[in-house]
Amino acid sequence: MQLKDYFPMWDKLTAEQQNKLSEDADRRVFKKGQIVHNGLTDCTGLFLVKSGQLRAYIVSDEGREVTIYRLFERDICLFSASCIMRSIQFDIAIEAEKDSDAWLIPAETYKSVMEQSAPLANYTNEIMASRFSEVMWLIEQIMWKSFDRRLADFLLEEAALEETEKLKITHEAISNHLGTAREVVARMLNYFQSEGMVKLSRGRVELTDVERLKKLQ
User: pLDDT tens digits for 167-215?
Assistant: First the structure.
């Protein structure tokens, strides 16, 4: 996969702009669990995901995490270059959920090209709008959707991503994704188990009745 594959408007950039982005792009490799971006004080640059899986999340004053979206192959990690966008005023952290490979375009490089290129600026705004839509969707889920439905959604999404119904995931990891207390997750998982929808063991959740979980959605 080449750099141009991430930008549908690549042909609308000048040769000089294309070369600037390509020459300054640097390959980065992240291990599972590694912090890729650590909030507003960290403006590393734009990450283009070649392989792997990243998680964008926010942290409350009490230290509770909630996942707002994930990034996969061919996705662009825009918030890691938040300093080039004045409208961003909230902290988003990003970690590698799996071993990941990415390109990094320095914030200064991307900003300089974006200021010269209306097509690139417009595309950046499209990405930003898409991410904010995901944030608004998450807020709606937290405010209006019962926790049993949110948990069922998460487990089914995980099973689809991992291509297995035997998930290697802890209660704490689930609570970090969903932005709730570990005890709340544990109680609901125990309820799911009592209803025959999952089977629990240390660090594992096996989906035993996918159809019933889907009916909760």
Answer: 999 999 999 999 888 999 999 999 999 999 999 999 999 999 999 999 9
Residue 66 in contact with residue 57, Cβ under 8 Å? yes
List pLDDT tens digits, range 19-53. 999 999 999 999 999 999 887 667 788 999 999 99
Q: What DSSP assignment string belongs to the chain?
A: --GGGG-TTGGGS-HHHHHHHHHH-EEEEE-TT-EEEESTT---EEEEEEES-EEEEEE-TTS-EEEEEEE-TT-EE-GGGGGG-TT--S--EEEESS-EEEEEEEHHHHHHHHHH-HHHHHHHHHHHHHHHHHHHHHHHHHHHS-HHHHHHHHHHHHHHHHTSSEEE--HHHHHHHHTS-HHHHHHHHHHHHHTTSEEEETTEEEES-HHHHHHH-
Query: What number of other Cβ atoms are within 10 A of residue 64's Cβ?
Result: 15
Q: Which residues are within 8 A (CB) of 40 and not within 5 positions of it... i.e. 6 or more apart?
A: 82, 83, 88, 89, 90, 91
